[in-house]
Amino acid sequence: MDSGSSSKMADNSDDKKRKAQGPPESARPRGAKQGSASTKYTLGKARSVDVVGFVEARSFEINALQRSLENARSQGNTRAFQTLPRHLRRRAASHNVKRIPARLREKALSEMKKSAQTSKALAGTDRLTNAKKSSRYKRRRARSVRQEYETRQTGKRWLETHVWHAKRMRMKELWGAMIAETPNERSHRAAYRAAKEKTYIQDVSYFRTLELVGSEDAIVGLLRQLTPPNELTLAMKPYIGGARMAPLTLYCAGSYPLALLGPATALWEPISGAGQRKLWLRLHPANADAIKVELERVLDAIPDGNDRAIQIKDITCDL
Q1: Residue 101 φ/ψ, nearest 5 degrees
Q2: What distance in Å separates the CA atoms of residue 212 and residue 232, rounded to the nearest whole number?
Q3: Whole-structure pTM over 0.85, yes or no?
């Protein structure tokens, strides 16, 4: 045979050897054995695990891991405000201790002091943060809404419903109080319909209240001099117990039917035992001062005795 045929036979024998040995190791699938023409993947049988027994056997390691995590959280680089849950975190809590719960404020203060000692901007100062000083307007501002309202009532008195009325009506200063004068919307028909078919409420807390303290007979005798002779007296059964208010029309003493002072309503304090009693007079502020002066004048004219032992006090702002 010539040399060409011998070389071809050698090449064919090498190819057969390569096929018998299989693909090279770089081309084999992971996990395939050498000499196998096709790779077969087999899965072993899954083993069962006793979870309870597994956890009990390693409970010591689990507890140690939890303790180490808690210690790392409290003693590591985590700041006090960062230990709070997401829903309790507040803006600017890193330099405002009041935004952190009270249980963590001591720790937050110590952290702020440490950071202030290493800060060049805060060295030699008593400040703990670089926060700017609040403006003069904010420093002079009232601490609370109640304090602000009390400041704005200088020279005049607000009713309990002032804020509600001020949003809906035009307010006017009358008799030393701010009173709703006219509504900002057209509500006359609605108010008339409510008064005719339903009900409506009016704030009359700007009325003055006088308190008369003394014996029952002395108070009845004092007011009898200022009321018409044919008017129902305060000593009648419907009013004496304090369950109903008595309507009164007051005049200057001994001047009926002239020298009208104005209307009033009276209410006895419910009977709590023997002794002195209290009577409250509700007066319009336009004539309250005149009625008080007339009561004091009549009281001074009474000779000394039990009938004069009556105290008159204005308790408008005490209610």
Answers
A1: -55, 155
A2: 19
A3: no
